[in-house]
Amino acid sequence: MKFIDESKQYQRLFHFEGIDFLMSDAWMGFYKGFYALETAIDDSWYCWLPKKVLEAQLDDGAEFFADTKRFNEYFNAHVEYLNKLLEIFDSEIKKPEILTKQNVEKFLGHWCLATSFFYRTEFFYTDKAYKLSVNNPVMQENLMRNYKLKERSRVEIFNYPWFGEDSYFRQMSRKLEKQFGVSIHDLKYYGVNDIYKLFDGVKVDSQVTRDRKEARVIIGEGNTVTVHAGAQVKDDILTLLKQAGEEIPSEIQILKGIPASKGKVIGRVKVIVSDPKTFDSLAKEFERMEKGDILVAETTSPEFMPACEKASAILANQGGLLSHAAVVSREFGIPCVVALKYATHVLKDGYIVEVDGEKGTVKILERK
């Protein structure tokens, strides 16, 4: 692969549909320090970490949650920051009729800073600590406090800024479209620095935005970010997906993931996908779900509770042992399997499946 360094042994963290270039670039503002990799073809977005970095984060998490002093300092700072974050977003994006460069810089900068708090709630930071916490009440308490904080933090750091027509990013885009005559569609494929340059009278060439939409590789390199875009990077992305087992199989009978909550159940599948394009229609999807259905999602989060309460089991493409899907399933006493990679693509509404929450398997019994 000429654009992606195979020797780093990238491990997949997240996958979402509808993540455009601006979102990708803003997210990399923090994760470049972890030497992260982002790949996307037509906004089907994946995020990766080098294997060594991922292992180091899991090790650090294990030490972090065992150290109450260190944890409390982080926890209190996280809460204090959240208490003022939405007010900052309102003052910089919602209230001004005309945005200044300083408004946008402060907004994007604060979102990057907010991400630096949130990453300590992610599965690639908490899973090893969770496994080690079985006989450690200090770690158990710190992990649960962290999980409860994550419920709030997820909504305020990700949902409000990113998802839906009322999100701060959409509000910002609508105002910038009006100010600079650049369509919202094109602004989605501007990078963070490109947005800043609008205030200096510089617009991105249309070929660049087309290339970024078609395919892109964004490489975090500590203090810098390198971007490659266009058809030239597609082969590298497809090769990485194949090597990582991310290719969606044409025929499969049993899916295997990480067991997150014990139990076995047979039920009917209900797939609910949450991304920037579908966020505003989630409530209707929750209403369509029947009691006893097996919920299948990329991941779940607090807004999914109406669906989780109906579910007889929860299946998620991504996540770990302290993901929302895992914790809620254990609280409800229903089976859960996470890290299934492509469950939302393979399973369809109405399929009958058997979920084994102890083995971490999902068996397709009947396709409808």
UniProtKB/TrEMBL annotation:
<dbReference type="InterPro" id="IPR008279">
    <property type="entry name" value="PEP-util_enz_mobile_dom"/>
</dbReference>
<protein>
    <recommendedName>
        <fullName>PEP-utilising enzyme mobile domain-containing protein</fullName>
    </recommendedName>
</protein>
<dbReference type="InterPro" id="IPR036637">
    <property type="entry name" value="Phosphohistidine_dom_sf"/>
</dbReference>
<feature type="domain" description="PEP-utilising enzyme mobile">
    <location>
        <begin position="290"/>
        <end position="360"/>
    </location>
</feature>
<dbReference type="Pfam" id="PF00391">
    <property type="entry name" value="PEP-utilizers"/>
</dbReference>
<dbReference type="InterPro" id="IPR051549">
    <property type="entry name" value="PEP_Utilizing_Enz"/>
</dbReference>
<dbReference type="GO" id="GO:0016772">
    <property type="term" value="F:transferase activity, transferring phosphorus-containing groups"/>
</dbReference>
